[in-house]
Here is the input.
Amino acid sequence: MYLMRIGAPGAEKPVARIDDETYVDLSDVVMDFDEAFFGTGGVARVRPIVARRAAEGRVGLFAGERVGAPIARPHQILCVGLNYRDHAAESGMPVPDEPILFTKSPNTLVGPNDDVRIPRGSAKTDWEVELGIVIGRRTSYLDDVAQARDAIAGYVVVNDVSERAFQLERGGQWSKGKSAETFNPAGPWLATADEIDDVLALDMWLDVNGVRRQTGNTKTMIFDPYFIVHYLSQFLVLEPGDLINTGTPPGVGMGLNPPVWLQPGDVMELGIRHLGTQRQHVLGPR
Here is the structure.
């Protein structure tokens, strides 16, 4: 299934995408795609409902509605840094022996086509296309990566927007450069895990103002999604609906020579095969 939330911010309704034109409305059976939904087997529960309604022609037509993030605000957004060797090289940092963990504020989450706002005092706002993992059940101390596979509800496209000066020049606290408002566009849909034949064979890309900046594939990850979920479960409890951003391939603004930073009026377009595309306008500070 492909789960989406459409409508105005704060008033999104949960639907299942059938194709580019149609969807099944689930708002009469699901409050939201949130912790309660994922934690009570919501994906399995709505699957036959979606199939039945689609077969009966009980579908809605997309009519230009805003697309929200495909999950409600999660308990936490966890991020893995430097998870592609060539991105570590362009950043001038060593390849990590273990996953580097940092967090983003959950209120950074916005829709895939919502505006991204440069924060006050920023001079180095940057882009990062990433594969996002959504956790499907409460998880801790997993025994192996097979259990980690079963704990994943699905996958999303995310743009891990970053302010590099805040991240790297203000005390070494990465979360400060990652948690400004609008800094985590997600979606347009969550593809449930069964829809992705090989999560390590997904092409990914990002353009700024029509110029290709990032081209990559999840096969070049250092730590794959199953390893990441297993690893993180040894240190903290993962809650249903939590989002994990898994790192970016090369081509970020910081890695260019000279570096290129986002400016008001810029347009970012990005996507991952099978997971859809995003488009964001960049706004100046409030």
Summary: The CA atoms of residues 135 and 152 lie 5 Å apart. The chain has a mean pLDDT of 96. The longest strand covers residues 152-159.
